[in-house]
Amino acid sequence: MSENPKDLSTETAPDIRIERMNSDKTRKDAGSDSVYHVYFELSGHPPPEWTSIFTREWSGLNQTQEVGIDGEFLVLHCELHDVAATRLPLLKKAVAATNEIYRRFAQEAATASEHRQDIREKERKDVAAVAASLRFD
Fold first, then answer.
1. b or e along 22-59 (b: 16 or more beta carbons within 10 Å of the residue's beta carbon)?
2. Is the C-alpha dihedral spanning 20, 23, 24, 26 positive or negative?
3. Fewer CB near the terminus (10 Å): N or C of the chain?
4. Are 132 and 23 in contact (CB under 8 A)?
């Protein structure tokens, strides 16, 4: 996890959205007659924490289809005819839940980082005060 609260700020890390299916990258799985690697373009490159939360959310939807993040792509392994009717709505649901959880995570991480920074600043002030009170003549 990042120590800098700006790295996890909800201001610098907007929600990830599925923008579109990338038909150029989508291809049939080698050795399968019906399973495809379906590539969905995301609105940005999700941070590792977001990816981890998404994987958990997807599994929580009792989905057996393999899904992964590849840069700015979400890659789903499924039959092509399943995409519109069942898979995309579930992906949107998992992404929305992930964004919500990630926002809370980012806010908590930023608050904890600010608290650590406050403690470091107080320690530095205490050290400076003691150093200023010392006389070496």
1. eeeebeeeeeeeebbbbbbebeeebbebbbebbeebbe
2. positive
3. C
4. no
Contact criterion met (CB below 8 Å) for 130 and 22: no
d(CA 71, CA 42): 9
Q: What are phi and psi of 24, to 5 degrees?
A: -70, -40
Whether the full predicted model's pTM is greater than 0.85, yes or no, is no
d(CA 60, CA 9): 26
Instruction: Return the amino acid letter for 85.
Output: A
Q: How many CB atoms lie within 10 A of CB 115?
A: 11
Domain boundary assignment for the chain: 5-133
C-alpha–C-alpha distance, residues 16 and 62, integer Å: 22
3-state SS string for 72-92: CEEEEEEEHHHHHHHHHHHHH
Q: What is the dihedral of CA 92, 96, 97, 103, to 10 degrees?
A: 150
